[in-house]
């Protein structure tokens, strides 16, 4: 049997691609989900892609904030990719302080389970952080990299409580949770390597659906989900190089208008796109040639991850076109 790599939150968007990358690398997958039915859907999808079902093990963890929730799931795993986070209630009834508490406690619990129950074969734990742990809610329009930290979101949640709002809650939760990872490493000095990965996201669905995309409040950077999965798996399999590192994933600065212009060229004359009205916007505005830094905005410098992994980011054109060709099925 191939060694297993645990992926928490297997039914998530990023986790699905990460599971594919793990299987491609020759390792088996164990994934945690809140309900087995959702995990079975991922298992079925991977099986349709040609991966045998016996290489994918699904474990139910109904509440990841409960002490010992991951004790059984971590046993015998070669590496752990912690992608799950209890952030689904950001716009619900849960208060920002409670969201931060739950996110931190679930990360702390996963690390404690790894230390006590995974066994000597555990080589690495990789935590999926966020660029929200790198810059403030009102971000400075400058270069940001792995040396930067969000210093104000946690204080905002502490001082404002319920009034802090979902964005502060998200930034504070991801920042505090990543700090928990590094505190654990410093205090416990575990035998396994520990790495944090930060990623950025962009809005493409709206462009495909014909609606004006909502700009993210602080940045317009992008990265392909397959690149994030690649970096996560690289970190898991190279603990000697990745231990103690933060790895920022960002392919450049795109934004809704760049997506629209790329897709306008891509769909021109293609019958399969007949009848689909893309959002057009104002062509050739709001981004730079080569999708680099844009005046007046923060810039995410992800050169470190390129250097250590030896592989550059996927071109924006490839990422946008591949994503749109999938998304149009849902129109």
Automatic annotation (TrEMBL):
<protein>
    <recommendedName>
        <fullName>NAD-dependent epimerase/dehydratase domain-containing protein</fullName>
    </recommendedName>
</protein>
<dbReference type="Pfam" id="PF01370">
    <property type="entry name" value="Epimerase"/>
</dbReference>
<dbReference type="InterPro" id="IPR050425">
    <property type="entry name" value="NAD(P)_dehydrat-like"/>
</dbReference>
<dbReference type="InterPro" id="IPR001509">
    <property type="entry name" value="Epimerase_deHydtase"/>
</dbReference>
<keyword id="KW-0560">Oxidoreductase</keyword>
<dbReference type="InterPro" id="IPR036291">
    <property type="entry name" value="NAD(P)-bd_dom_sf"/>
</dbReference>
<comment type="similarity">
    <text>Belongs to the NAD(P)-dependent epimerase/dehydratase family. Dihydroflavonol-4-reductase subfamily.</text>
</comment>
<feature type="domain" description="NAD-dependent epimerase/dehydratase">
    <location>
        <begin position="5"/>
        <end position="189"/>
    </location>
</feature>
